[in-house]
Amino acid sequence: MKKYPTTKDIAKLAGVSRTTVSFVLNNRTDVKISESTRQKVLNIAKELDYHPHAIATSLVKNKTKTIGLILCQQLESVFSDAFLPRVILGVSTVAQERDYKILLQYVEEVTMKDTYYHMVREKRIDGIILSGPRSDDEELHKLKDEDFPVVLMGQINDDSFSCSDIDNVKAAKKAVQHLISHGHKRIAIITNAPLNYTASELRLLGYKKALQKNSITYDEKLVCIGNFTPQSGFDAMQKLLSIKKLPTAVFVASDVVAFGVMDAIKKSGRNIPEDIALVGFDNVNLSEYVDPPLTTVNLPGFDIGKNAANLLINIIKNNENKDKKIILETHMVLRKSCGCNL
Fold it and tell me: What class is the 168-299 domain?
């Protein structure tokens, strides 16, 4: 783990006390410090690329009234994700009501290292809401060690974090069970994202549980990995269409990914739901207007964002425990893509 320079490091190199370093870096004009000492401290701080530690600074200078909203996905998928605007609106509504500003940042997988820590150190935020947590993300644990306020929109295998989420396993199981109720036994899944994203992993688990409950054999050939975008759904469906024994139904764990799936099925000359039935996940606005209209699982995106923002601000104000969980209900929205005659 990278070691960040501290005032202790600056003091040692400058040959002065940490108090003197603090006075210089905070531009204390009421304290008598020689100009040569002041310049020496500033030059060393610059050479070390020192940034004031926002956690300590916030304790001294009170709160910044700014929260960070981190979207853990690539920029392309942020702009193609039709579900995110509802979540962001929920966060923004609460922030405005409670007089907080939002610093929005997306995090590409290739640049994840140290991203949150840099935000905390450089942007002077009071807390972070993290959308789309990953099971392999060490940044979260670094922030927890600093006792920095964090709320997840999603969950990881650590109960010490507060979160606003749904029961992904239960919701996915419900979606697959609906396809089974239509008589399907050869059901494929295309995930919403790579499996190191916990929501993706949990939705796959819900799929497996539905098959197990109905004594349907799990087949790895029927499992494809999406990556937030319609193109990833198109590519995954083309892969499924190339296998010898085709699925009769597909559970797609994201409506946005499902739009690409639908395009691939149609371009292959097949019909939905007559040849391949489809159920999505999220209930984004467009899902009602595609042809055929997409049966999907409704996620309360606005409420997920609203609850996350309230949780975080309450933690910042010390009015909430740091391990509170809010799990919201989902429900099926039945349309024609699954074979329902509505």
Answer: alpha beta
